[in-house]
Specification:
A hairpin with a 7-residue loop joins strand 2 and strand 3. By secondary structure, the chain is mainly beta.
Length: about 210
C-alpha cells in the first residue's frame, strides 16, 4: 500500500520506478487506479494505491504531486504479509473525519479484519501523537518543523463497531483529517472465524461459540 498526502492545487498520481538505472516508469498498480479524496472541508488531499507487491515492481514508489516542485507532501509505503490479495479494495478509503483548530479527534468505528487509520495534519509545530490503547505498528512522517507542512501518522487495530478512542496530538493544528482503510485478511486455515473482543457484530458468545 502506498499513501500520499498533500496540500496543493492538484491531485497526486502514483508511479513506480522499475530500477535505479532505468528511465522507464509504469503505474504502481496497472490493474487498479489509485483512490483519491479531498478531505473536505480541509484542503488536505489523500491518495491511496493498494496492490500486490513483488520484487519485479521495484523497490520504491514515486508520486507526482503537481507540475511544479512541491515539498508540502508526505509519502508512506506499508506492507501487509497476510492480506487477502483477492479482496483488494478498488476504493480503499472507507470513510474519513475532519476537525479544525484542534489537538485531538475521536476516531471512527473500525471495519472487518484490520483497520488502518491514516491521520493527516497541517501544522507548524506538530512533533508527536498518542494513539488509543490497542493500536499497533504506528508510523510517523513529519514535515519540517516551523513551516506549515503536511504530517502523516498511521496505526492499525482490529475492526470493531464502536470508536476505538481518541487520537491525541501534542500541538493544536489548523487542519486535521483521519481516513479509515480496511486491510482485508485471509480466512483461517481451519475455516473458523476470528473472535474479536468487543466486536458485537461478529463475536457474540453463545452455545456454539468456544474460546480456545
Amino acid at each position: 500500500m502506498s499513501i500520499c498526502a498533500s496540500y496543493s492545487e492538484s491531485d497526486p498520481s502514483p508511479q513506480t520506478r522499475l530500477s535505479a538505472s532505468s528511465a522507464v516508469e509504469t503505474e504502481a498498480n496497472p490493474l487498479r487506479s489509485a483512490s483519491s479524496a479531498t478531505l473536505d472541508p480541509t484542503k488536505i488531499r489523500l491518495k491511496v494505491s493498494v496492490f500486490e507487491w513483488s520484487a519485479g515492481k521495484g523497490q520504491s514508489v514515486s508520486w507526482q504531486v503537481s507540475s511544479q516542485p512541491d515539498t508540502n507532501a508526505i509519502i508512506m509505503n506499508l506492507t501487509y504479509r497476510q492480506a487477502d490479495t483477492f479482496r483488494l479494495p478498488a476504493t480503499p478509503i472507507v470513510a474519513y473525519k475532519t476537525a479544525m483548530d484542534t489537538d485531538r479527534i475521536a476516531l471512527q468505528a473500525g471495519t472487518d479484519h484490520r483497520s488502518l487509520y491514516v491521520a493527516v495534519a497541517l501544522s507548524r509545530e506538530l512533533t508527536g501523537v498518542q494513539w488509543p490503547a490497542g493500536f499497533e505498528t504506528p508510523r510517523e512522517e513529519f514535515g519540517r518543523f516551523g513551516d506549515m507542512q503536511v504530517h502523516m501518522m498511521t496505526a492499525t487495530t482490529v475492526g470493531a463497531p464502536a470508536s476505538p478512542g481518541v487520537l491525541q496530538l501534542d500541538a493544536t493544528v489548523p487542519q486535521l483529517a483521519v481516513a479509515l482503510i480496511t486491510v482485508p485478511g485471509r480466512a483461517n486455515p481451519d475455516g473458523k472465524g476470528v473472535w474479536i473482543l468487543g466486536d458485537q457484530a461478529a463475536s457474540i458468545l453463545g452455545q456454539t461459540t468456544y474460546l480456545e
